[in-house]
Structures
1.
Amino acid sequence: MDALTLFGAVAVSLMLLFYALEHRAPVFVLAFAGACAASSIYGFAQGAWPFGVVEAVWSVVALRRWWGRRVGVG
């Protein structure tokens, strides 16, 4: 397994973990957003730009959800 594949596997694994923990605290929503951003970087780095774009969008969506939970909106 090369470094890029390992990076992608860790990023996607962290996405799953933080998604499962989101209900516990807003910080896990923020961590999910960061893991989505890492997955986006992986997608672009390995040449799968549609995956990179979708993960970037998920990262923005998660950041908005975090912001809403942080200020008590969601």
Note: Residues 3-70 form one domain.
2.
Amino acid sequence: MGLDRVFNTPTINVDQEKYDRLIVIEERYKQLIKQEKKENLDFGQAIQYLKQGKKLQRKGWNGKNQYIELATGISYRNNDNDIIDVFHNDIESKAIAFVGTSGIQMGWLASQADMLAEDWRLVE
């Protein structure tokens, strides 16, 4: 039984120099993506990082080691010594916590200056 069809495989010519340049460009792009922007963030960027579990602070904050972070799974103890799990339809069990020199302030609210500032940075 003979072959009734012959298949020809097309030859693909590759410009090796262009291919190598594309590989270099791709590697540089990957490095840029990995280098996360860590300073001079605006408030919108800061909120996005906050939602990802990052800690943030303003460059101009006076106290050392002050930052904000997203608190989840919030609960409290009432006067009857019952532990109450906090839940809200819109924000669930989350709030922004301000960690400062005097302790933790739950439900931190940003000022106008904080919202308009572009000196937010990630805390390592």
Note: The radius of gyration is 27 Å.
